[in-house]
Amino acid sequence: MATADRYAIAIDDTDWTIPGAFPTHFRWEYQDGRENLLKLYQKGKDRQWDASTRIDWSQDLDPENPEQLPDETIPIHASDAFRRLTREEKAAVRRHFQSWQLSQFLHGEQGALICTAKIVQQVPSIDAKFYAATQVIDEARHVEAYSRLLHDKFELAYPITPTLKRLLDNELSDSRWDMTYLGMQVLIEGLALAAFASIRDEAKNRLAASVNAYVMQDEARHVAFGRFALRDYYPKLTQAERDEREEFAVEACYLMRDRFQAEEVWETLGLPVAECAAYMLESGFMQNYRSALFSRIVPVIKDIGLWGPKIRRAYANMGILGFADVDAEALSAEDERVAQDLDRQTGR
Fold this sequence. Notes:
Blueprint: H1 3-6, H2 35-46, H3 51-54, H4 80-83, H5 87-122, H6 126-154, H7 162-173, H8 177-202, H9 206-233, H10 239-259, H11 263-268, H12 273-282, H13 284-292, H14 298-303, H15 309-318, H16 328-346
Helix pairs in contact: 2-6, 2-9, 5-6, 5-7, 5-8, 6-9, 7-8, 8-9, 8-10, 9-16, 10-15
């Protein structure tokens, strides 16, 4: 069945074209690679895997709670709107919200696929072109995995949210190569890692947990790629140029924090949209959850040198400044360990 037939909300068109122009950069010096990027490139080659064989697709999902996640992972779980529901209605909320979340992962992974292909063309250094080429196949594999999970197991999907679409539009329409890195490799990929982790660590369904664990194993390298490349580049910019990047990062973080309200889910299920959205904005639980989603972003922003007064003030206001001291490399090592443990448990 076509994806358009799986969408819970009808869409006008299955194509989206972003007009734009950017330079394509060839590099005739092939021996000036940076050691950290060349090691990452080798790791990217070594860690290639096949979504058809590494994941056991014979596993089924629970119709009342597909990923077998605790209700605490539903943003409105403690609201009056959710408490009023019957058992069947709560099961529908679980299925639709989980499908909506995975659908945004799917659309975001296609965005990453296209952004990384753009980076291959644009980035001036050959070592970055090498690594970005491995990420292109990584992202295609992620699109394949999430698409299969939604089509074959959930049999339900949601269109891309306006917020994610706006973020991708901003990145892909900007002609500067580093803005694609900053928007995708650092911001969107960083937020996605934290969201993936919540499913990987909480899901009792092994299929759902393994898809996210294996994707995270790749994504940790992708964030490191952005960190290595931008950490070398941003010190070379003027203060005015760095200020512009900080402004972009602040705006994107506010957008990601406040605009992913899942209104389309509540509307599709006939729930009071305004009441659900207000609960998500005001509840202490959701404020803490949204803040935790930035645990993978803030330390990288600091590491790449976008750490002026404006961005520190904005992060303090958002309650996420404390994540600046998180050890990003330790988190990446843990992502690698979890994926390897799953392989050992399944004999793969």
